[in-house]
């Protein structure tokens, strides 16, 4: 496993990738249902869910923190943020 110079020892994309993969496996269906509740559309929910995973990964790597027990919270927040961003882009 190769680490970027910008990341501190012990924090890497693989850590976040593994955490998100576990989350998708264990809680993915529930989080997609949450995205449907937020967006009101199963089609948009799938897109927002995927954006949320990318945003959670990016935030974790930017903050240079190892994934913790709040990964699901981070993804839920990213679902709402992604939906808001899509609504703003359509309205603009």
Q: What is this structure's SSE topology?
A:
Layout: H1 13-39, H2 42-63, H3 71-91
Helix pairs in contact: 1-2, 1-3, 2-3
Structural commentary:
- The chain is mainly alpha-helical and about 90 residues long.
- About 75% of the residues lie in helices and about 0% in strands.
- The chain has three helices and no strands.
- Helix 1 (about 15-40) crosses helix 3 (about 70-90) and helix 2 crosses helix 3 (about 70-90).
- It is globular and about 40 Å long.
- It starts with 12 loop residues before the first helix and ends with a helix.
- Residues about 1-10 have low confidence and may be disordered.
Short structural summary:
The chain is mainly α and 92 residues long.
Radius of gyration: 14 Å
Shape: globular
Which range does the strand content fall in?
under 5%
Which structural category fits the helices and strands? Answer: mainly alpha
- What's the count of strands? 0
Proportion of helical residues: over 70%
Distance between the termini: 43 Å
Main pleated sheet: none
Instruction: Tell me, rounded to a whole number, the average pLDDT.
Output: 82
**Structure annotation, total helices:** 3
Low-confidence stretches: 1-8
Order of helices and strands: HHH
């Amino acid at each position: 496993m190769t680490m970027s110079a910008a990341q501190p020892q012990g924090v890497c994309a693989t850590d976040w990738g593994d955490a998100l993969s576990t989350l998708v496996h264990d809680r993915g269906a529930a989080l997609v249902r949450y995205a449907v509740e937020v967006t009101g559309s199963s089609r948009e929910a799938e897109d927002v869910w995927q954006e949320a995973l990318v945003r959670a990964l990016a935030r974790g790597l930017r903050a240079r923190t190892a994934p913790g027990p709040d990964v699901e919270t981070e993804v839920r927040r990213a679902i709402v943020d992604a939906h808001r961003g899509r609504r703003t882009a359509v309205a603009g």
